[in-house]
């Protein structure tokens, strides 16, 4: 089974509107972390926001917030007031505490967001 | 702040040639990783290291070798390049302190095997 599932290959949003990018995950660990990264067309990976499995409040970072629903195993990224510069590929990723200790990230396949003027 | 630096940024190889991708980080991070990114598949872990002198296999290690002789450097080698290894390669590093520490990525190496 896929550990991270992003079901929206592409999304369009009008400038200044809010958009939600979906992410569901699968893990048997009680302790884990969820990350969102942005990859603009230039190719670099930019860390946006983090949510820990024990965090009771949803994470927020500026215009980014994470809608964390633990029972549903979902960690959706919400971007408020979209800007043209938000056009990029967005990846959801998970780090699990258990197992090998490698603390590597498992990535979803990404969602390409295009912000239209 | 340099962060994570990858060299080269682009490379074209012929099938069967060998090469080494270099990754250097200046954040004193314990953990380092090599990922590959293919269209529609996100990033997949090739090899990783949890400290100087240690390496281990990730999800897609075949055809690659790695070395971590110094804490700040993590090298990825292709002994005999194959067209299936055409990809964008990312190096990343992170502190061992806690799950919340994000991985810091280099800008990637775009590798084409003809």
Please render the helix and strand layout as text.
The complex is a heterodimer of chains A (117) and B (114).
Chain A: E1 4-5, E2 10-14, E3 19-21, E4 24-25, E5 32-39, E6 46-52, E7 60-61, E8 64-69, E9 74-79, E10 88-96, E11 106-107, E12 111-116
Parallel strand pairs in A: 2-12
Antiparallel strand pairs in A: 1-4, 3-9, 5-6, 5-10, 7-8, 8-9, 10-11, 10-12
Chain B: E1 4-7, E2 10-13, E3 19-25, E4 31-37, E5 43-51, E6 54-57, E7 64-67, E8 73-78, E9 87-94, E10 104-105, E11 109-113
Parallel strand pairs in B: 2-11
Antiparallel strand pairs in B: 1-3, 3-8, 4-5, 4-9, 5-6, 7-8, 9-10, 9-11
Structural class of chain A: mainly beta
Sequence stretches where pLDDT stays below 50 over 5 or more residues of chain A: none
Separate helix tally of chain B: 0
* Tertiary shape of chain A: globular
Distance between the termini of chain B: 35 Å
Count of alpha/pi helices of chain A: 0
| End-to-end distance of chain A | 38 Å
Brief descriptors of the model:
heterodimer; A: 117 residues; mainly beta; six-stranded mixed sheet; four-stranded antiparallel sheet; 12 strands; B: 114 residues; seven-stranded mixed sheet; globular
Short précis:
With 117 residues, chain A is mainly β. Chain A has strands at 4-5, 10-14, 19-21, 24-25, 32-39, 46-52, 60-61, 64-69, 74-79, 88-96, 106-107, 111-116.
